[in-house]
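Appendix B, example 12.
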Amino acid sequence: MDRVSTSGLYGSVITNLMTAQSAQADAGAQVSSQKKATDLKGFGSQAQTLTAMQTVQSQIQTYLDQSQLTSSKLSVQDSAMTQISDSVTAARKAIADALASGSGDTLMQAMGTSFQNGVSALNTTYNGQYLFAGGQVNTKPVTATAMTDLTTAPSIASLFQNDQHITATQIDQNTSIKTGFVADQLGTGMLNAFQSIQSFSEGANGPFTGKLTTAQTTFLQSQLAVFDSVSTGLTTAQAQNGLMQSQLSSTQTDLGSRSTTMQGLIGNITDADLAQASANLTQAQQAVQASAQVFASLRSSSLVSLLPVA
């Protein structure tokens, strides 16, 4: 005897079919996204823990991003300071060469080139802003363009336009370092040394042309120690910059390790077991097919199909 389907049976089969389809969708989403859920609701009691972990991870990533920017700045800063130091070294060499040859014919030309290289380094820009300008990032920190400016300016200090704001950077939640230098801090000694040469050249014992006089020789010999002192000061500043680079590198390594650990902890909560998710998907697909077949069978056993045609 044929069984006659009822609305109750239809409802039960449709409910089973919808449940199987929902399970199939969830398993499919896990397989495609490789995550257990797409929103916090899907993580149940672990949602609060997950939110806290994600907040910590976001903070770590912020510090990592900031440290990378700061590392780039310190690298540019180191290159600029090297150029300043090299310009002073080149000037000292020009003096030593003049003393060795006994001639001042090329001294001022060499000094002028070294001076311009040093000033150019003091006016270095980074991301469109003057690196050694303090807070006056849009104002060129050194206005002198030639050694003659050193003797015509009211003072060496008047040639510097930077302020005394030193940039501080938070490299992790507990540590902040001052990463900036300003132009007058780095360049005052250098400009004073070049000014002495220019003033002497313009004075009664100048200019430096032809064979050096006794007065010129004595003066230039005294300037070797002056430029040595300037070089020492610049080396100290560059060493400070190097220490900051080293500290920042260590912090980046620590932050990277913490980020990796936190990603693992978050993954333990969010990442789906792909083998299990694939098995669940297969099982859900089979359930959908079975429910669909039952539904099709019920349609063929409807009471309507047994009624005679009028």
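The chain has a mean pLDDT of 83. Residues 7-34+274-306 form one domain.
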